[in-house]
Amino acid sequence: MFKTSIRNKLIVLLLLITIVPFGTSIVITYLYTKESLKDEFVQENVNLLYQGKLNLEGYVGELKNLTLSFYNNIDFMNYLRNPSQDDDDYLAKESVKNVILTILYAEKNINRVNIAVEEDNQNVSVSKTSGVVFSPVVKNLYKESYEKAMNNSNFIYIEPMHVLQKDGAVKDKREKKEVIRLHRALIDIPSNKLLGYISLDIAPDQIIDISEKLYVKDKEEFYILSPEGELIFRSNSEVSETEEWVTSVLKSTETSGTMEWEKDSFRGLMMYDKLSESAGGWILVKRIPYTSVFESALSVAKINIMFGVIGLCLVIMATFLVSFKITSPIRVLLQNIKKVEEGNMNVYFDSLGNDEIGILGERFIQMIGKINHLINREYKLELENKTNQLKVLQSQLNPHFLYNSLQSIGTLALKNNVPQVYTLVTHLSKIMRYGMNIDEDLVPLTKEIDFTKAFLLLQKERFGDQFEYSLQFDKEVLTIEVPKMILQPIIENYFKHGFNSSDESIGQLMIMGRKESNQLVITIHDNGKGISENRLNEIYQSFDKEKQKIDTDGTNIGLRNVYFRLKLYFDGRANFHIQNHQDGGLLVILRLPIETGGGMVEGNYY
């Protein structure tokens, strides 16, 4: 009793309708916030990465332009074309010095400029710690880098970051310098003749400065990869070039993109953007852990949970208060509602008070009274309407049937004037008595079979050898009650639409009845011409119309009659199916419930 009391149910209900919305709200808010922040993070960082890409491309473009500035210097270009003739030419060497010094000091991060002249293997170099030096080219010093520059469509190659050591010996960290080396192949345009190579050693300060503006330290990671996968810049020194994500980015055919990565001890978003080949083809990669992406979402969820707990506590207090104050009158209402559910509509109880619950009790009593009145009135009206409707359906059968039957008897009498007329009249009188007796609505199946047999005998006499029929019913189904005259409209439909007396073929009609589980199954199969799909669809569509209308031309009125009578008798539990048989002709299947459960009769309702 304690577990099923109204008070406890009310408490549980109020708690549920509080916890579920609050919990759902928290979850939905968190998920929505999570996805919104994720999309916002992605867009912001894609834009930031794109801006960083433009900055780096701009910086590399400035360095590239420096390596092209000397193309307008005729003396310098002549030196490149034929350096051996200018060995003793003081003016030519001064021109070369001026060019490489101009390049050296044009940008503060350029530490060294080297020009390797292809002709006669001449080399000119200068740095900010030494003067201009003319010397032979050191073989194989930059051979691999020169080849990559020559094979590049823009004739440039940017080496990853190197560590140079003073005087070629390892001393201490203060003497180590990190540089990025840019190589350009010098082409004698428009002849495409290789004149030499220019190399710039560039301090990475500007690149590092640009990179550090593209990520948040301790929360995000940023990397610059060369097209070969070498790390030019990395915010996390523990990350190596052999990790799987590096390979994944290099294999991507897109110039930019976003992916979720959950390998190599990293769980989060990874965005990348590739510089153009003319700017070295570097790849900018930014990795943001989920903890950073969803940090704000977690904060919002915590705030929601805090307010949810406060609200829940208030609701629990209010629930107990309400449950103790109003459960008594509610119990009275529930007891009377149970009476109504059990079918007892005589409800009356003392006043429950002057508040809303008291008014509810009074309205409940009034409502039950009105329901009683409406049920009695509407139920009787509905039964009366259905009775009238069924009478009309039955009356639709007799005139047409009598017309055909009398016509058959008269024709045979005129032709033969034999005692068979008596037999035919006997069959007809049996049919008329069966059809006009409206006091019977449900009859044993054996009566329906006798009626059907009499009707078929008349048709047999009418058409002679052109028509054959068979009736096959299991003995166990003969006592089952069925709606009266349920088979005759289907059989008559065959003679109206399926049977052709002028045809040389013999018309055949087979009617069978059997029991399947708790259903009586009756099949009517003929060998007529069948029915077209369009016409079959029209018949089924006519069944769907709740309001019956009598067709003046008699089209499918018998089939509609059967359908609506079955619907009224068995309240949708019977099945009426029409189809073309696979061997030809039409097949009609009736499935009637054997236990009708006190099914509705057509005439006597009370």
UniProtKB/TrEMBL annotation:
Compartments (UniProt record): Cell membrane
Top-level lineage group: Bacteria
Positions of the Histidine kinase domain: 374-596
Catalyses which reaction(s): ATP + protein L-histidine = ADP + protein N-phospho-L-histidine
Pfam families in the cross-refs: HATPase_c, His_kinase
The PH domain, residue ranges: 222-254
A molecular function GO annotation: kinase activity
Transmembrane region(s): 12-32, 305-324
Membrane-topology annotation of the record: Multi-pass membrane protein
Major enzyme class: transferase
Full protein name: histidine kinase
Taxonomic lineage of the native organism: Bacteria, Bacillati, Bacillota, Bacilli, Bacillales
